[in-house]
Amino acid sequence: MPQADDAAREALAHRPHLDPASMRAHYRAEGLRTEDLADDPYQQFLRWFEDAVTAGLHEPNAMVVSTADERGRPSSRTVLLKQFDERGFVFYTNYGSRKGREIEANPYVSLLFPWHAIARQVIVSGRAERTGRDETAAYFRTRPHGSQLGAWASEQSSKVASREELDRTYEALAARYPETEDVPVPPRWGGYRVVAETVEFWQGRENRLHDRLRYVRTDAGWTVERLCP
Ligand SMILES: Cc1cc2nc3c(=O)[nH]c(=O)nc-3n(C[C@H](O)[C@H](O)[C@H](O)COP(=O)(O)O)c2cc1C
Description:
Largest sheet: 9 strands, antiparallel
CATH topology of the domain at 25-142 and 186-226: Pnp Oxidase, Chain A
Distance between the termini: 36 Å
Radius of gyration: 21 Å
Mean pLDDT: 93
Low-confidence stretches: none
Bound molecules: flavin mononucleotide
């Protein structure tokens, strides 16, 4: 669409502050040294997660999860990290969603924490496995009543005719399960735990000479390698 391209260029010419090519943030000077890293990536993640929380980042537990279908076509979306420890990183979703179907066909996923405000990102690659039903149920009970109903109301990733249809489904569920009633855990809803194989910690530095330190799981434990920025 050449006309549309021209229009977009014209619009940017009058608003240079919206031109992404001219946007350049200056990154912090403090570096990341191998000798300062924790012994395993989960402890290191805890340190950086604490920094992200302390810095007041909005939703520091938001992460982009990328999956690929059986033909290798990727897709990404944001989800919320709900738990992490040496067993892995946990998020909750609908198993019948696009991501759920892709994980069932190909369990290899990537997680990315985009902590731009503090010039950091963490990238995890590994295998996703379903959390146990007891663990899922324990987390489901902590969700607000409305979110519990929402998990039932939405066939995540499938087409819906209208907003009204979605609202009607929710209202019918709200009538069936008032605030005083326990909402059962939807059978198609639950957690995935991503068991890390590599975890990269990226720290922005001056002159684009960023630090990238990557933990790699081996039979003997975790090793760390430095990557060019
Ligand atoms: C900040 C944020 C947090 C989100 N958290 C979740 C989540 O924890 N679980 C989830 O299933 N979807 C979450 N979503 C919605 C997903 O990004 C996505 O729209 C949905 O999971 C359907 O993805 P899919 O069709 O690729 O499977 C979140 C979206 C945003 C913007």
